[in-house]
Structures are given as structure tokens and as C-alpha cells.
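Hi L.,

You mentioned the student needs an example of a multi-chain input paired with its predicted structure. This one should do, with 910 residues in total across all chains.
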Amino acid sequence: MAYTENELAKDLENQEYKFGFVTDIESDKAPNGLSEDIIRFISAKKKEPEWLLDHRLQAFATWKTMTEPSWAHVHYTKPNMQEICFYSAPKQTKKYESWDDVDPEMKETMKKLGISMEEQKRLTGVAVDFVMDSVSVATSFKSKLNELGIIFCSFSEAVQEHPELVRKHMGTVVPTSDNFYAALNSAVFTDGSFCYIPKGVRCPMELSTYFRINEGGTGQFERTLVVADEGSFVSYLEGCTAPQRDENQLHAAVVELIALENAEIKYSTVQNWYPGNKEGIGGIFNFVTKRGICERNAKISWTQVETGSAVTWKYPSCILKGDNSVGEFYSVAVTNNYQQADTGTKMIHLGKNTKSTIISKGISAGKSQNSYRGLVQIHKNATNARNFSQCDSLLMSDECGAHTFPYIECKNSSAKIEHEATTSKIGEDQIFYCQQRGINIEKAISLIVNGYCKEVLNQLPMEFAVEAQKLLEISLEGSVG
Amino acid sequence: MNDILQDSKLSAFVDKLSKTLLPLDQKITHKAQEVIESMDFPTTRNEAWKYTRLGKITGIKLENKIDRVGNLSREKINSLFQVSKNGLTFVYENGLFRSDLSSGEFPKGATIKPLTGCSKEELKNLGANIKLENEVFNAINTLFAVDGMFISIDKNVVINEPIQFIHLLSGSNTIANTRNYIQLAPFSKAEIIQSYYSLEAEKAFTNVINEINIAENAMLTINKLQCETENSFHISTDQVAQEKNSNFSINTITLNGTLVRNNLNIEVNGTNCETHLNGIYLLKENQHVDNHTVVDHKAAHCESHELYKGVIDDKATAVFNGKVFVRKDSQKINAFQSNANVLLSDDATVNSKPELEIYADDVKCSHGSTTGQLNEEAVFYLRARGISEKSARHLMISAFIEDVISKIENEDVKNFTHSIIKERFGWEF
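Structure written out for the whole complex:
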């Protein structure tokens, strides 16, 4: 993808968070606070069946008994659940039949986000589900997917139209009692995406969801469920942005992936929630539970580029249940200013001949703290399990921190596990070498950082890779000097 | 709440122990008392004890024993347990000094004696660096330590012969709370061999703290051999403080013991220091060995190297948790950490957690951890050359651990380690 010098220069000038606008759309909000009534309110709003309400209430009951975890290497003021609005939807009275019906103002928002649907339709053939303030507003390319039997719609639509599928799979990978924020999400989730790929179907296009928090004082709790039936393949993208606000907003999502026999799911995330300003005020708390389960010969691959959020707390994991299943995790996490990230993965090897690869690249700049926390667990019956982990950290200032907390647990003697980690800064000789050849220091750093992240960026679909590269440059602008 | 605490396992555990006679600062003993009163034994919910269950220790009644194993003689001790024939050998039984079993010449320029024989002035820093908050075993040791050794090396003194300490644990349900205090003055050099054995001991427990202060330009090597029997417990804490230009090496060799936990806390306070931590743990049956190391780089321009290797057989469990801290402004640190494990049986378990916490940018830090088994192709290669399968495997295991053993400089320690490994596991070197 051609990305010229001029464009870069322009982007770098525009180093402040460029998605920080607020869209002026009337929205439908629930009163602040959390109680059974609010949950009933959400459920009623969504015209949900009885079983789902029960599921929510049960999750809420579990949540009330739990305490917020504090083991992560991050410091923040715990959000007050009673001050958060758990339901906010852009006001809309009718369902959109086609893309042309969508509120022009919202279209404008999407355009600003760089996901102009017309353009995307034309150029890339990516099907997009757009979730704003917890509610899914538009899904493109529906008819084309329908022909193949692929279901790709908002979560609430799936609840109405495919209740049997949702009921069968929801909560099987991330149970309601999994952790504090997963329980909270299970109780109050408002929307999200649902995707089902039937047996033997190879999804012809990238499926994509764009999440955006628009309203102030709200929390976003969405839920994504991707089910790939036997022998199918899907590549799924996810992007996130939020307006600039001085308050900390909470985003607690749950993503569940189910790869049945011989299926493959590729899940890519470019996370660019508002990271707070230079003094560390405001920004999103990103507390996400992502997990996938692999049946026999299945494969799940997580790729993430994390540049946003004030506090990130996220561990996309794979349960390698079936024999010969494969789990992959590729991550670039960038923190600048006062951002804090505690991210990594869990690879749980249960089946025989299971394989996992972890490549994690952390970049910390400013006064940020960036931690990798990962678990590789080989269970007793996981004969011939194989894991390779590499987590590198790059330090760009003398006030930031980079930390590695790998947990390696092995109960099988035929397993092979390798873990390596390095921490260093950009070599002065590398920069010198570039400068000698007429590349200025800013460009040199971006060159080196891009090279450093290449292994991960290569895993992203092309359009995302370009966006991710730009994001990296913007996030790190001015961090070395 | 109070009722529950009174019934804690910990208070029952320390019930029969006699208070220490060491001249510890009152503030320190008060603090230790507070910890004992307010806490119980750590559970696996405690991050530092995540992989180590203490049920084996906490369930038994232990007491201080002063009965002695009758038929011991200086000659017998020396032939059985003495690692090096050179230098001074001090023998302790259940934490108490036994002059009748000790032998060798006192080196010049050094003060070596039991802690109980020291003046208040000599022990004014005793316990100053030992963390008590949340550290139950440190608190127990602080309140109930019976004795230990005091080593002080004078300025500019280089001691070539190793100083040897043999710690014996005897009798059933014995607890030995041992406290050792080691200090090196500037420009001095010493080597210490600590070896631990048990005799006729069932369910016996060694809880030892080594307080080590290394002044600038001094150099200290410790070789620690843990060879207690299959039903002994061993928890040790080494608290080391390094001043500028100093050099500290410790080789921890764990060959036996049902539950062994080693806490190595190294504080590097001065610039240009070197720190070497090496360890091997060879486990079989139901053994559980947990090595926790912390290297805290508080000053710039330092280097630390860590190499731990383990071979785990039967139903044994090994834990490795290495942590490297690089504090803010501690630039130009090179810290390397490596842990490798070989599993020989399907019931064996390894939990490895190498951690880095880095707050400075101009550093080179890395860690690596591997877990695997013997390479079948390599075994085949050896067999194809007429070496029996058993010998081939032994050869490969020996080569694997020799990597660490070869880092020990003292030939006597090397040979002694080889002979114990051969006796216990049948692996030849």
C-alpha cells in the first residue's frame, strides 16, 4: 500500500487523537446505575426472550458476589458502577433496510473513522457491522453473505432470528462466572456482533465490526460471538474508537470464538480507544475478555494492535481442546504518555499434538507502563504439545516501564515449550546508520519500529495493516527526543 | 475475627518453640510477633506461593530438639559430609553449634564464630534487611532462631580456603531455625560452602535465613548443597546486599528434600556490580522444589546472570520464579535469566515464571524458559554407536546439568556434587 512521505508528515502533525470528535445524534439512554431493574429495562428494550433475561439476572447475581481483580500491573481508580449508564442507543425508530437509509450524521461519523461504507464496498469488499454506544447500527453486504448461508448480524438481531444458535453457544467459552468484568458484561451487555459460518464454507470477504463509544458517561458492553462450523473459514476484523472526554469510560466486552472441527478463525483487532490526554486525564478503561475454543484440527489466530485506551486489561486466549488444534497470538501493544497496558494471552493445551505460537511486541514511551502477561498450560493428556513464545519490549523513554510475566505450567513430559523475552531500547547505532543515509530521526524511529513489529503487522489483512502502521506512528510521535 | 486467628495453624505451629536468644532489635522482634499473630501460612492464593502447597509442613507438630545423634565423630562427619578437605569446617546440629565435630584452622583476618557468642556491637545490623511483612517463615526464624554462624571478613583480606558449614538435622519432628550472618569488608574475598543433611530424621524442617552484606570491591561465592532426606522440609531465604564494584555468586544445588523452597533476594545497591545465580534441581518421587529469585537492580552499570536447570522425574514438581527489577535511572543494566527443564515422566510437573520488571530504558534484559524432554534422535544417535539406551539417556542428562555444574569454580564442590548425583540417580559424569 503506497503511503507517501507527505501523508506521513500530515499524520504526524495531527498527532493528537484524531478520532476525538463527538457525533451529535440524539440517543436513547437508560438512567445511570446498575440494578436488576436496569437489566430488566435493557432486556425489555431489546425484546429479549425469557431465557436471556434469566441468563442476565443469573450473571448479575454472580457478579454481585465478586470483587474487582487487582492483580494486574495497572493502577486506576475503580469505576463506580452506579455512575455509569449501561444503555445508550442512537435514537432510531425504524430498522434500516439498506445502507441509504442510515442517518446522514452517522454516516459522517463512519466516514471520519475512515470506514466509509460506499468506499469499502467498492474497494475491499469488507462487510461491516457498526456498533455505536452499545447498539449495532448497520450491517452491510448482508444479502451477499446470506446466499452462502453465513449469518452476520448484530447480537440482538441474532437473538431474535437465530435464538437456537445463540442459546447453544453463548457463554460456553466465557461462562458468566469467569471473571468480574465478564460477569458484568453477561448481565448488562447491550449488543455486539454475531457471526455463523456454516459447514465447509469459506467466507469470501473479511467480516468487520467497528465499535464506537459516543455518549458521555456511558459504558460500552458488547458481546461478540463467532461460530465457525466444521471445515469453515472466516477472517474477522474489529476496530474501536471513542471521543475525547475528561472522564474515564468503561468498555468491558466479551468475545467468544468457537471453531468446530477443521474450522479456522482469524480474529484481528485494531484497538484505538481514546487513550487520555498528555497528562493522563480521561481515556477508556478497556477490560475485555476474549477467548476461543478449538475443536479437532481447528485453528484460532488472534492478531491485535493495541494503541489506545488509558488502561488495557486484555488476554485473548485459546483453549486447544481438540487434537491437532492450533492457537496463535500476535500482538503489538503501544503505550504512550500515561497509558497502562497489561495484555497477553493464555494457551491452554488439552488435546494431543496441539500447537501454539505467541509473538508479542510491546512498545512503551512517555510515562507509560506496558506489561505482557501470558499463560502456557500443558495438561496431562496433551501429548506432543508444542509452544513457542516470544515477547519483546522496546523502551522509548527513561520514564516508562516494560514488564514481562509469563506463566509456564507443564504437566506432560512430551511437551516442548520455549519462551524468550528481551527488553531493550532502539539502538543508537541503528538510528545513526539511518541518519547517515539522510533519514531524519523521526523517520528512522518509525522505520525501526515498523520493522520491529513486522512479524505481527504481516498477520493483519492488508487494509488493517496500513491503518495499524499509521496508528503506530501517530501514537509514538514525539516520544523520542 | 480474633477467635479465628487464635486457632490459626501458624499459632499452633509455633506453640512449642522456644524464643530466640539472639540480640535482635526489639522493633524487629515486635514486628515478627505481629506477623505471627495476625497471619496464617500462605496458601496458593498468594501469588508468591501459587505453585507450592505447604500442607505437608503446616500439618505436623514440630519442636526444637537438643538431643544429639550419639555415635557421631569428627572423622565420621568429615568422611561422610565434608565437601572440601581444605579450610575450616563448622558443624551445626539442629541449628546448634557443635564444636566437638568441627575441625580445621581458622583463617587469618576473619572472625568466624557462632552467633550466640557474638557481642551486641557485632550484631547491630542483624535482621535489618530481612523483610517480615507477609513473610511468615522469616518471622518464625526471627522469633525462634536458635543459633547460626557469624562470618566477618576484614578489609583487604583474601581467604583462599573455603569456609565450610555442615548443617545436620536429626531426630523426628525437629525444627531447626538457623540464622547466618555474613559480612565482607571492602576489597575482601571469600568462599563459603553450606551443606545440609539430615540424620535419622523424619518430618524435620530447616528454616534458614542467610543475611549477607558485601561491601565495595569485595567478592563472595556461596555453594549451597541441599541433600536432606526424602522426608525433610527446607525453606531458606538469602538476603544479599551488594555495594559498588562487588561480585556475588551463588550456586544452589538441590538434590533431595520433600519440599524445598529457596528465596534468593539480591539487592544491588552500588554501581558496577556483578551477580551470578546458578542452580540445579534434580527431583524424583514426590519431591517439590521451588526456586524464587529476585534481583533488584537499584544502581546503574550492573550485570546479572541467572541460569537454572532442572531434571524432573516420577511425580515430582519443580517451580522456578525468577524476577529481575530494573529501577528507574538504573541505566546500562545487562540482566540475563535462563531456565531449562527436562521432564522424564508423565506425572512430573514444571511451573516456570521468569519475570522482568523494567523502569529504565537503556538496558539489555532477556529471559528464556524451555521445557522439554530428551531428544529421541540424539538418543538414537548414541545407541547407533553401541551405547546402551540407559547410558545414552544418562549421558544426555549429565551433559544437560553439567552446563551449570561447570560454572562452579571449586573442584572439590564439583566432584562432591558429581558423586552425590551418581549415588542418588546413577548418572555418571
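You could point out the following to them. DSSP finds nine helices and 19 strands in chain B. Residues 2-270 of chain B form one domain.

Best wishes,
N.
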